[in-house]
Write a structure and sequence with these properties.
single chain, mainly alpha, two-stranded antiparallel ribbon
Length: 71
């Protein structure tokens, strides 16, 4: 599966793989928690994966994140 993420979605995913929760991501990126949730819903839909931990595992296992850089 070749999934294309927007730059903001990539940023959200990077922060998630650092172990940050939605509140911490919102504070880091200066966006609301609901905006973080919105992007996570988009990512979830693109991947067809609902649980946050499974999304993280998927992007790590499939090389979407490499040394904290999105491909």
């Amino acid at each position: 599966m070749d999934v294309k993420f927007t730059e903001r979605e990539k940023t959200i995913l990077k922060e998630l793989t650092k172990g940050k929760n939605y509140r911490e991501i919102s504070e880091t990126l200066y966006i609301s928690i609901s905006t973080v949730k919105h992007y996570m819903a988009q990512i979830s839909e693109k991947l067809g994966i609902k649980r946050k931990i499974n999304i993280i595992l998927y992007v790590l296992e499939h090389g979407y994140i490499n040394n904290n850089n999105m491909q």
